[in-house]
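Submission sheet (multi-component)
Chains listed below:
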Amino acid sequence: MHVVHVQVHVKPEAVESFRQATRDNARGSLQEPGIVRFDVCQSVDDPTRFVLVEVYRTKEDPPRHRETAHYKAWREAVEPMMAEPRTKAEYVNVHPEDSDWV
Amino acid sequence: MHVVHVQVHVKPEAVESFRQATRDNARGSLQEPGIVRFDVCQSVDDPTRFVLVEVYRTKEDPPRHRETAHYKAWREAVEPMMAEPRTKAEYVNVHPEDSDWV
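Outcome: structure written.
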């Protein structure tokens, strides 16, 4: 698996609209054959900080994701909500193995 | 859900033994009733960096996890492997909802 963690910091007034826009993006993303998981989490210590845990079958799948309508709609919707540029880190899975990933 | 991301940086010579010890801990952790997921990922850019994605049913479950034999064995095994102290961040789930988490 190709795992991407996206760290997001939004403006305080944008927290609720970011949650909604990102839920919509997650639901759309989970329809893509190349996406296994798309978890959205909000920081306990600072509710303006989120992490998106995106699990792709291969590293060729993120560019396909970025061509989808739901991703493009999300990117446009959240652009004015950002308190700072988002950052990402890329990983491979150690556990579970590919065949056990759900 | 109560989601904990643990960031780990190990010494270069400890990468393989850390992978093995952490796989063992993940398998044991997944037997705990309070743990839904225990994913272990390794950085693409820097193989000495890992993130543990631990998904607990409630915030009361992490202290129970720390009392288990597999956690204590892991903590002891990996202590000399650390390049720097590990850090953690705590989250709540925005998507999926609790009932849809697998």
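Remark: Residues 47 and 54 of chain A are 20 Å apart (CA to CA).
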